């Protein structure tokens, strides 16, 4: 309540000033003053009309200023005009001490008004605070000169191209603006380039001035440039496609992929799913400006132009990571319709996951919005699944599995939910002849590890804080990983925690690297490689082999030979087009 007092005071002052400014009040006060000057007694009855004119407002005594003397409290406050009326009076009597006193009170009132003015109190008691929230970035006046400078650099580029720059050359414009190279596609598109096939200087200037005057940092500008179809407050998955297609078509590390148009979209959608997995922390399917600002995406995007080997960019873009994800999906999606069902997913990692958690995965608790198909998992959803399954230390993964285990959706993992998942693990272990722990003992261990803030009540934040969420989750639904952990040398586990300070690969990066090596090794073991590098290799088999190698980004030379030898579509390798979908080809592939 205490913080309300100053506001109440302001309201009272406001009412008092209103009362003072009313003509009737002033008339009565003037009469009173004249009577005082003439030494006549004041009549209390004269105050009654004022009560009426205020009409419902509190009568007689509006609160006096704090320094008013007790005698003044009996009278109505003096109008500021009284001094004027006194001056105009021909008699000009000496000021009485009371009047002096009153004058002092009035000055103090004035001071208060000043103080109030300083904090800009406006009628209605709303305080106008300086702006502290800048959703589109904080404007910086010193930047405007900088952007004019950029415009002169851009002008030079346009002069080099006789006034109109085509799409292929727009990188020069992006660089002249001081932006990363791969901003060129959205810049070109937003300036209206796709309509005309080129952008002229006036077209660019209009776009650039509007962009830099309304959007004040790279995150808000990036969102504005990409979100052409809807509001400029967020990005949806499709908004990234032109940008990523440009990267596929021009990045030196993806040269081997150029001919394989069918894989462009697979790669692009894998990258988009990864971007949303890491950046869209709100799970809305819409990346907002603050989410983009909080992520490393723009830095990683900028780093692409300095790194020729795309596999070195392990965040979002690595081709090897894409290859692993896609191969894992391909293994499960036996009919190759790019959808997998419960039965398919059960086969993942040799039935490592429990059937209960798989059922939950298909319940819609971790699939979002319009992509949800009853009983099916789409490819982008599988990307989320694999990232979550293989790196249970990442916050998104913890959120992912928490949603799956929180069956009643109350934000708490209750005992009955834990027991539901644990009982399946126990039956699995019993079938394998492995010694099991009763649920109560398991629970004790788990609570000891998670240390929930509220006893017996495991929340998402508890799991995020405990740093051992991956052990927690594996205990309840991934028997292989649970046993792997149980059988580990405890000292090795302790070392893991001590060593986490330095820049170490994440669990996901470690997994992707191992799997990639395995896939390559399997490929090498399944297929004889002799003759692969020879000019006179035989038609189909070796072509398919070289295509696979190219898909892996292993050998550019092989790819070149292949280009020379044949124009066989890459779909042969994977059967994506449905022409070749027999088992032989699948075997070749793996
Ligand atoms: Ca399928
Ligand atoms: Ca629950």
From TrEMBL:
EF-hand domain mapped to chain residues: 393-428
One term of GO molecular function: protein phosphatase regulator activity
Pfam families hit by this protein: EF-hand_13 (PF17958), EF-hand_7 (PF13499), P2R3B_EF-hand (PF21161)
Regions of compositional bias (Acidic residues) in chain numbering: 578-590
UniProt feature, compositional bias: Basic and acidic residues: 97-111, 555-566
Gene Ontology CC: one annotated term: protein phosphatase type 2A complex
Keyword check for Repressor: no
Keywords of this entry: Calcium, Metal-binding
Database matches in Gene3D superfamilies: 1.10.238.220, 1.10.238.230, EF-hand
Spans annotated as Disordered: 40-111, 555-590
Keyword Cell membrane found: no
PANTHER family, per database record: MIP22305P (PTHR14095:SF0), PHOSPHATASE 2A REGULATORY SUBUNIT-RELATED (PTHR14095)
Name the UniProt record assigns to this protein: Serine/threonine-protein phosphatase 2A regulatory subunit B'' subunit beta
Organism of provenance: Acropora cervicornis
């Amino acid at each position: 309540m205490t913080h309300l007092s100053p506001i109440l005071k302001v309201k009272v002052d406001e009412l008092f000033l209103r009362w003072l400014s009313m003509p009737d009040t002033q008339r009565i006060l003037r009469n009173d003053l004249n009577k005082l000057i003439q030494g006549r007694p004041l009549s209390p009855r004269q105050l009654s009309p004022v009560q009426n004119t205020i009409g419902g407002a509190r009568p007689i005594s509006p609160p006096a200023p704090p320094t008013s003397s007790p005698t003044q409290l009996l009278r109505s406050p003096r109008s500021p005009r009284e001094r004027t009326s006194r001056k105009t009076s021909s008699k000009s009597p000496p000021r009485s001490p009371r009047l002096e006193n009153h004058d002092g009170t009035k000055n103090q009132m004035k001071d208060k008004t000043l103080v109030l003015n300083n904090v800009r109190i406006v009628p209605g008691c709303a305080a106008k605070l300086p702006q502290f929230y800048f959703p589109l970035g904080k404007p910086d006046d010193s930047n405007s000169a900088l952007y004019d400078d950029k415009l002169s650099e851009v002008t030079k580029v346009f002069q080099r191209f006789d006034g109109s720059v085509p799409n292929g050359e727009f990188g020069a414009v992006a660089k002249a603006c001081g932006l990363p190279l791969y901003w060129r596609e959205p810049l070109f598109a937003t300036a209206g380039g796709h309509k005309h096939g080129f952008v002229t200087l006036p077209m660019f200037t209009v776009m650039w001035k509007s962009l830099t005057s309304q959007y004040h940092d790279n995150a808000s500008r990036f969102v504005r440039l990409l979100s052409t179809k809807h509001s400029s407050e967020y990005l949806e998955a499709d908004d990234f496609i032109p940008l990523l297609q440009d990267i596929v078509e021009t990045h030196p590390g993806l040269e081997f992929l150029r001919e394989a148009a069918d894989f462009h979209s697979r790669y692009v959608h894998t990258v988009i799913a990864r971007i949303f997995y890491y950046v869209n922390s709100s799970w809305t399917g819409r990346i907002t400006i603050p989410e983009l600002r909080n992520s490393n995406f723009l830095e990683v995007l900028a780093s692409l132009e300095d790194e020729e080997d795309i596999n070195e960019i392990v965040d979002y873009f690595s081709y090897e990571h894409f290859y692993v994800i896609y191969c894992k999906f391909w293994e499960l999606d036996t009919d190759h319709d790019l959808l997998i069902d419960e039965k398919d997913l059960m086969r993942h990692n040799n039935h490592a996951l429990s059937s209960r958690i798989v059922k939950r995965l298909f319940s819609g608790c971790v699939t979002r919005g319009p992509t949800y198909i009853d009983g099916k998992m789409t490819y982008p959803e599988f990307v989320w699944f694999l990232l979550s399954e293989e790196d249970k230390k990442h916050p998104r993964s913890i959120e992912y599995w928490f949603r799956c285990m929180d069956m009643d959706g109350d934000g708490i993992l209750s005992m009955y939910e834990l027991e539901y998942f644990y009982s399946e693990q126990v039956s699995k272990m019993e079938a394998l002849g492995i010694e099991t722990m009763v649920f109560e003992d398991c629970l004790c261990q788990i609570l000891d590890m998670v240390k929930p803030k509220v006893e017996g009540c495991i929340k998402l934040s508890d799991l995020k804080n405990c740093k051992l969420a991956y052990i927690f989750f594996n205990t309840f639904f991934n028997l292989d990983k649970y046993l792997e952990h149980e059988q580990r040398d405890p000292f090795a586990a302790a070392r893991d925690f001590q060593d986490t300070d330095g820049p170490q690969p994440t669990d996901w990066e470690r997994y992707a690297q191992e799997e990639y090596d395995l896939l390559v090794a399997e490929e090498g073991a399944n297929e004889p490689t002799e003759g692969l590098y020879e000019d006179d290799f035989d038609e189909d088999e070796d072509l398919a082999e070289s295509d696979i190698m190219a898909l892996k980004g292993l050998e550019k030379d092989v790819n070149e030979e292949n280009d020379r030898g044949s124009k066989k579509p890459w779909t042969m390798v994977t059967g994506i087009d449905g022409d070749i979908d027999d088992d032989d080809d699948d075997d070749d592939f793996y």
